[in-house]
Amino acid sequence: MKAIPVPEIEGVYLFEPTPHADQRGFFSRTFDRDVVASVGIDPDGFAQDSLSRSRKGVVRGMHLRGGAGEAKLVRCSYGAIFDVVVDLRPDSPTFRNVKTFELSGETQVSVYIPAGCAHGFQSLTEVSDVSYRIDRPHDPSEDITISYKDPELDISWPLSVTMVSDRDERAPSLLEALKPTR
């Protein structure tokens, strides 16, 4: 497994496994604590693993977490997704940069998303399973949702959007979502 920095968004890494294939299929390590630690990420810092399953065209996002934020390691374990990361850390040199990836069960590549970045994806296949490893227990009161169709983000979803959650459909624009509360 190797770690590949993503220059468009500081602190984002792709973790590319080395699959071992034969006539049965393949075996692949999807997490390696030594490789993760080699780029300054605490491999013991993850608190929860979750899984979502989506149908083709479904969009989930754009989501981030308030408070101390939430770092996550995301992998498409089955199917394929169009994955989107937006840097919303005001002090970051890559602030407001958007980067997209195609993640798939074929490659098993993971993307590490630092706290303060928004994340979303669209399922490209009839079924896609996405695994999330997050660095602290989920607290729904800190959830922030930004409209997946916000023109300021200018995300070109590759397929027609077939379904989103009610929360994602009603999500405010980037500017509204990040407006300080008084």
Automatic annotation (TrEMBL):
One GO term in the molecular function aspect is: dTDP-4-dehydrorhamnose 3,5-epimerase activity
This protein's source sits in the domain of life called Bacteria
In Gene Ontology terms, what is a biological process of this protein?
A: polysaccharide biosynthetic process
Give the GO cellular component terms, alphabetically.
Answer: cytosol
The record's listing under InterPro entries reads: RmlC-like, RmlC-like_jellyroll, RmlC_Cupin_sf
Would you indicate the residue range of the signal peptide?
Answer: none
Positions of the catalytic residues: 63 (proton acceptor), 132 (proton donor)
Give the record's family classification. Answer: Belongs to the dTDP-4-dehydrorhamnose 3,5-epimerase family.
Which named protein is this?
dTDP-4-keto-6-deoxy-D-glucose epimerase
Q: Which organism is it from?
A: Amycolatopsis eburnea
